[in-house]
Each structure stands twice: as C-alpha cells, then as structure tokens.
Amino acid sequence: GIKMLIKEDIVPHKADKVIHFMAPIAMVAPAIVALGVIPYGRNMTAVVIDGGILLFFAVGSATELAVFMAGWGSNNKYSMLGAMRAIAQMVSYELPLLLAAVPVIMAVGSLSPDAMVAAQDGHLWGVVPKWFVLTPWGAVAFLIFLISALVESNRTPFDLPEGESELVAGFMTEYSGFKYAIFFMAEYFGMFAIAGLAVTLFLGGWQPPVAFLGFVPSWLWFFLKLAVLTLVFIWIRGTLP
C-alpha cells in the first residue's frame, strides 16, 4: 500500500491534465459525503436532514461523472470504452437500488434515515426485532438492494468496470501511484456507505437484536452489522470464480 502511494505519478502527454487530476477526487468525495447522513448510533448522525436518503442517492450518482472524467481525460480509447461500459452498468443498477428503498420510504413515510431506524424500534415478545428485513416485502427488497449494492461497489461477479482481462483495468488504464490508489479507496468507501445504508434501511440501524441487550452502546450494534455485511461482500468476491 505505501509503495503505491510513493510511486511516480505518470500522466499521458496528450491527456487533459486537469480532468485527469480531478477524476479520482470526484470519485472519492461523494462516497465521503454519503457517509455523513448515516446514523451510526443514538444521536450520532453527522448531518441530520429530512431528505437524508435523497441526498445519499444524489451524491452516489455523481460517481458516474467521475468515471467518465477518468475515461475522457486519459485520452485513451480503451479507457473511454471502459468508462462507457462502467457507466452503463452503474446507471442500469441504480434504478433497482433506488426502487428497493422505496418500500421502506413508503412504510416509514419519511426520507430521514433517523426516522427509518426509529420505525424499526421494539421487539415482538421481547425477542424478535421489528426490522424490515424480517417482513416478506422487506426480505425481497433487501435481496434486490444487496445485489444492486454489489454492482454499485464493482464487486464480483459484477466487476466489469475494471475488466482486467480485456480492458486492462478499464477507465483506470492511464492511472498510477496515488491516483490509482484513490480509485480503490473510493470503491471501499462506497462499499462501507452502501452497506451502512442497507443496515439503516433493513437491519434496524443501531437497534439491538434483542431487548435485554439494550444496555450495549448503540454504535457498537451498528458497526457489528456493518462488519457482517461488509464481510459478506468480501466473502462473495473471494469465493466466486
């Protein structure tokens, strides 16, 4: 990792140097902004706004622009083809990702992530949590959301944007060193953000799984759920051929 950060930054002679430089920044910035609207615990939301879910999807869709900037600014036909293919995949799966969140929005009647976590408070008989994933419609929506999240994160088996075998890393072909590392950092930031949104929408956010464990710090429950979901993403990539 450190070696990659100190490697020489090579920029093609005929590349658009401004766009080439800005593309990695435009990729990582939306992922960091999206992390701000997720409730990490009781009263632990960095940016509390009524339309938090709307903001999440709005900034998340900005990554397509960053991918196009990387392909266009590189002045390389393979980078441009890779960028077009990546954008086609990302736009295609943003629709089911958004539609999977709609049932939760309708059930809660709000676009606020905090309201969605509050709506999943409580337990049946003190044991079964009232998480949306445990409802029939919530289970289906969660499955669709999870598949779409894998695509948006460029995880296997939807890692077409990178295309190492035929497009030599696709839109990142002309990137090296620190800029190349930023693209992968943005990918993992995005994975944490979208996994955090899945926890908020379907897995009760920071709510405990059983009532008698309510004394455990709320943020610990959130990060445990986030860790499990992230490990599922990594496990899928590690086991699929």
Give an overview in words.
Helix 2 packs antiparallel against helix 3, helix 7 runs antiparallel to helix 9 and helix 9 crosses helix 10. Strand 1 (123-124) and strand 2 (128-129) form a beta hairpin. The longest helix has 32 residues, at 77-108. The protein is an all-alpha fold and 241 residues long. The chain has 10 helices and 2 strands. A two-stranded antiparallel ribbon has the order 1-2. The model has no long low-confidence stretch (mean pLDDT 87). The two termini are 25 Å apart.
Oligomer: single chain
Principal-axis shape:
elongated
SSE pattern = HHHHHHEEHHHH
Class of secondary structure makeup: mainly alpha
Widest sheet: strand ordering = 1-2
Question: What layout of secondary structure does this protein have?
Answer:
Layout: H1 2-6, H2 17-34, H3 52-60, H4 63-73, H5 77-108, H6 113-119, E1 123-124, E2 128-129, H7 136-152, H8 164-167, H9 177-202, H10 218-239
What is the compact description of this entry?
With 241 residues, this protein is mostly helical.
